[in-house]
Amino acid sequence: MKFIALVSGGKDSCYSILHSIKQGHELVALGNLHPYDEDQQELDSFMFQTVGHDLVKWYQQCTQLPLIRRAIRPESSKNVSLNYYPTETDEIEDLLELLIDAQKKVPGLEAVNAGAILSSYQRTRVEDVCSRLGLVSLSYLWQRDQKDLMSEMCLMSKQSNEENVTPKMDARLIKTAAIGLDGSSLGKSLPQVFPLLQRLNERFEVHICGEGGEFETMVFDAPFFKYGYLEPHVLRIEGADNFDGVYSARMGVTFVKRESQKTIEELLLNLPVPPVLEHRWTELAENVCISDEASIKPTSKTAQTHTAQTSINKIGYMLYVSNLSPRTGDSVESKTQDVINQLKEILEGNKLFASQIMSSSLLLEKMVDFSTVNALYNRFFQVRDNGPLPPSRACVGSNLIGEGTTLQLSVVVDTAAVITEHKGMALNMSKDGLHVQGRSFWAPCNIGPYSQAIWKKEDPNRISFISGQIALVPATMELVSSLSPGLGEDISQAVLALRHFDTLKRTIDAEVQVTTVCYVSGNQMVPAVAKVWALYCTEMAEISDAWFDKALEDPRSLIIVKVSELPRQAKCEWGGTVCNKLSVVDEDQDDHATEIDDNNAGKKEEDNDDFLRITSASYQATIKNSTSSRRVVTGYLDSQEDFEKIAKSCPRLQATLFYSPSSNLSVSEGLPGIELYPVEQVYDYEGKERLAGFQLTGES
Fold this sequence. Notes:
Layout: E1 2-6, H1 11-22, E2 26-35, H2 53-56, H3 59-63, E3 67-72, H4 91-105, E4 111-113, H5 120-133, E5 136-138, H6 146-155, E6 170-176, H7 190-204, E7 215-221, E8 228-238, E9 247-257, H8 264-267, H9 279-286, E10 311-315, E11 318-324, H10 332-349, E12 357-364, H11 370-380, H12 383-386, E13 392-397, E14 407-414, E15 419-422, E16 425-428, E17 431-434, E18 453-456, E19 464-469, E20 472-473, E21 478-479, H13 489-507, E22 512-520, H14 525-543, E23 558-562, E24 572-579, H15 591-607, H16 609-612, E25 617-624, E26 629-637, H17 640-649, E27 654-659, E28 674-678, E29 681-683, E30 689-690, E31 692-699
Parallel strand pairs: 1-2, 1-4, 2-3, 4-5, 12-13, 22-23, 27-28
Antiparallel strand pairs: 6-7, 6-9, 8-9, 10-11, 11-14, 12-14, 15-16, 17-18, 18-19, 19-24, 20-21, 22-24, 23-29, 25-26, 26-31, 27-31, 29-30
């Protein structure tokens, strides 16, 4: 893709450009926002580095690329919410105008490169603007380890006394604001200052890449500076007379003409690229051993489809709207719109907004209809009406929802959310989440209008809904075939998709598994999924030091289901819910009251007939804090009698039932409190076929 690089002059944007080029994208322009008063160095921007902005103008001469600039005024960080939404006179709207200008001046512009490492504040703003303009965000430094990054930058940098014959990265400190860094650090290159930064990190937790504002840098040479470089000299050092520990250098430069004889591909030949799988995940993949006896053959059944009526069920403050399917319509578009209209009616009838939807489950009769359904789904959840953070989503193909049905939609709605209206948007102030739209090495960006993870801000347990993860290579967004020679496609996809799921858990600090579903598009995937899950939950911690720090998981939270299709023709998709802690005790709560509550907990559980009725439950998670207690059960059914126990418990409880309409299980159409999930086969966590599987949620 042709991309414009947002450059402040700093090392991060420069190094990110190298990775975008390495991934096959073409640098066609540079973009820079600078203070309206060009004599001003420091601007109170929450978003853009402006120190050294007067030197960025030389980059056009060094690269012979268009440099598109726009001025920003002081105090223009109007919207400082972590997840940005369009706000008049905010500096992000200046970024929008800069990129609109770039689209006019650069034909075929497709993407925007940015250098965010840890700052979700920066990332979400670039992604918001890209989304509005139909551009792809490239963020190849996102969530990278800072020590690894700085090591790589030093490897790609010009070393002391090295000639400038070949273009190499030359970034130097121009501002310092941390203990151990002072005026003597200014002007030093990354290789020169790296040892000191490592010591400061060990002693004072100084961010090695300066992510805490410890220092700023300016790039004077880079592999894409094909036509010349900048020879820097210090004009003056500011801050020596202050007592705030902040020092900055005003730099002057001399442009030195130089035309590189090497191609950019040759210059980036040694650029380190992170592997798709980290070392510990490679170890896990190598330990997957499946015997021939474990292979599963499809069960011969007479094909049948299901019909389900809409269920609306409230458990605590969560409203579960299940089994929405078209009532009218003669096309994919009209049927999808009918389902959306039904959902609108239910929300309006309960005085709720679309922004209060936390999670959704979307079943498609034919995956070929994905783009059409997705477009209407996207329109319903668009930012201009609902603000940022669309719900998490699992989307699978199930041709058993009924011939001609096209789709079935179920959602979970937070009825207690605080809503603020802003210029026509119903902003959910109670929702938090992870919505990554840019390409990186971290994990796949979203391929639809959904967030990777959603949770309620005030929830002490941070119960989080995780979107379904398939085995996409994050940097390219292509489906993986084989991760290494000798490692088959089935195992590769099972491992990589679970790695992405685990990455989301760790990123949001919610690593306790509550429910898990793995959708597979072929029965041959079941043994691979079961073995990969067993290794992940318990076995790797026993055989590998790389997994020693991972908490053991109860593998019984998993249900494996065979469906007809998955997005991108993937072989498996991992999804579920997680939390930060199962039990959170309020520090202000009276110790005696806590003791009484703990003593009564067992009695409350014994008295809960609804849960005790489910004798076939295999896994239970009780999630409690000082104000609420919820229980989630994962189990399997092997008889009609087992199912009747579930049915009697609803709607006091909410259930999701994974079942095959072709089985001998008799399921009534109008069951309240049950999301009916038609699949071809159901398997337990060990890969054994079961009649059905269920997830049960309720207050305890």
